[in-house]
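Handoff note, outgoing to incoming analyst
You'll be picking up this chain. Sequence as last confirmed:
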Amino acid sequence: MAVSARFVTLLVLAGCGGPPPAPSPAPADLAPEPRVREAALPPADAPYVVILGVAQDAGHPQAGCTKACCAKAHQDPAAGHRVVSLGLVDGDQRVLIDATPDFRSQLYDLSPSGRLDAVFLTHAHIGHYSGLVHLGREAMGSDAVEVYAMPRMKAFLAADRPWSLLADQGHVSLQDLREDEPVQITDRIQITPFLVPHRDEISETVGYRIQGPDHAVAFVPDIDKWERWDHPVEDLVATVDVALLDATFFANGEIGRDMALIPHPFVSESMARLGDLPPSERAKVWFIHMNHTNPLLGEDGEARRTVRQAGFEVAEEGRFIGL
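Most recent structure output, in case you need it:
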């Protein structure tokens, strides 16, 4: 699988906000090696997950952003970060989780031939489904690509234009997802959706458990707050090898809006909640879905050092996780 230079380059960028509060880090020597290591190259004989983007729905830089955190990326696109998406690879089979505004480059990195067997959607916020437009007549003109969605999400795509044209014209084939019911999507990869609370204006919101023959990955890019979920996040972490968790904002006050209107678990809150877990459990947690203001986008910043010293990890584009 060809991988572009942008895809594997790790970037340095200063954050927008002020210094975020953070819990006291655990000693660095208590953080163990992760149980599933990301490989420099994809495994030759095993299915795997590849991280295709790590930013919040609007990407980095964000439209209209004139702050320091966006300035370099406006001048040099290679200094930016793509919207969060995962690719799943099993032999020749290629699957996307979420179709983002960065669909074009993400599909190329996943599948230079353009092959796409299926798309799984988490919810109907712009960064997670709007890339479906590239499957339509004006672009790829795809032939019945399977798009998996929960009932409300599927009904929205089937009834509202321009999305309904994709199915009406045969470019996508809408498939049912049901809570906690696994889908055997490739020969060796099974995907199970689970509901999470998250401002469900148009559709429900799900996370995914991705199960391979040897390892499992959880993906929860969006959730309101951990305490609003009836499933303890600690239990989710315990059942997988890597947990990719919502890190939209590092701390309260990061943006100049009422953050109660766009609730997410702050990274500082997640570290405080999960900080008493054993080192082996903390090492499973990789933060993802960072807003353009989140200082974790700065590769050499204090926020990232704090996270890693506390035994957690930050997701990066181009990492592979063997399943």
